[in-house]
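Case study.
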Amino acid sequence: MTTLLRAAELTRAYGPTQALRGVDIDVAEGEIVAVTGPSGCGKSTLLHCLAGILRADSGTVRYRDQDLNLWSEADRSRLRRTDFGILFQFGQLVPELTAAENVALPLLLAGSGRREARQTAVGWLDRFGVADLADQRPGAMSGGQLQRCAVARAMVTEPAVLFADEPTGALDVLTGEQVLNEIVGVARAQRTAVVLVTHEAQIAAYADREVVLRDGRVDATGLGIGVRS
Amino acid sequence: MSTPHVLLGLLVNGPRHGYDLKKAHDERLPQAKPLAFGQVYATLGRLERDGYVEQSGQEREGGPDRTTYSLTEAGRAQIDDWLAQTERPAPYVSSTLFSKVVVSLLVADADRARDYLIAQRAAHTARMRELTAVKTTPGAGLGDIVAADYAIAHLDADLRWLTTTLQRVADLHREVHG
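After joint prediction, the assembly is written out as follows.
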């Protein structure tokens, strides 16, 4: 399998708090990798660094063998729009726009025509079973519907990597499972790699592989807790 | 075990013979231990003796004669009673996993328990991944999904308990050894 993303020796601090202390991680094309670990272990920070939202203090993130740290903010921003899809727990849709407008947004930003963007957006909403909500605004939707629209928006540009930070965290168990199953199914069909941040073992079980973090480092034991003094 | 009640439940929708009951049992409870034929006939014998089922005919489909059984009124009432009873939460924890962690803490030290936990966690997560694949396979039946859910929930509970236990051991170790 070809390596798509490779991070080496990543460190990142927030003031005095060291969130990442030298993380190495590889993601292959089409691979689904779960990043797990207890609260505060650095998993969200890692996702933000891999997705180019945050710049690491040191270390490298290579995407298709190019060092993202050497790129300008404008280039990284363009990469996020074209090659990366990003999905958070909640709060990512623009409340004033309809579902179709929200999903079409990345396409419009990339220069697509309005009509074509809408058509593609509705197609993606349909793929997640929410095409009937195309003209509704987020305020009128349930948690599961909101998250399906958000996934459609993250996938609309057919990214090479989907970064998902606790994507089912705000949903009840059954809805979360359905949404995750749809994400994984579509990602596999599209050969989209997924970096899935979660603290739940049942969610991580959907991935091909699990990387456990502890105190800002990869914990090879997989425990995510410290025992040896 | 609730095998007699499962067999009664399978007879609710009409008479069946023993072979058919065994097949239906294994299909409905795909993650349970498959029923042995001997067990099916022995159970049917007891249910007949107690008046919960009765022989209702012979069936021949190119093979030997097969006796079909049907549910009696008393059998139907027995099913209703059983379903109406709340199961008592198990009074004692009984699992080899639990015993092993406790014993490893008794006879060895935190490191030993930790090594065991690392291996056990890997085995548990691998099994969870397998079961998740089973239930997300397109066309998976409700029986498979429900059974996989049940097993996954228990594995998840084990994992949480294992992690919490080891965290407690680590905290204690730190307190004692500074």
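Observations recorded in class. Chain B touches chain A at residues 110-111, 113-114, 117-118, 121-122, 125, 128-129, 131-132, 136, 152-153, 155-156, 159-160, 163, 166-167, 169-170, 173-174, 177 (CB under 8 Å). The beta strands of chain B are 16-17, 53-59, 66-71. We will return to this complex in the next lecture.
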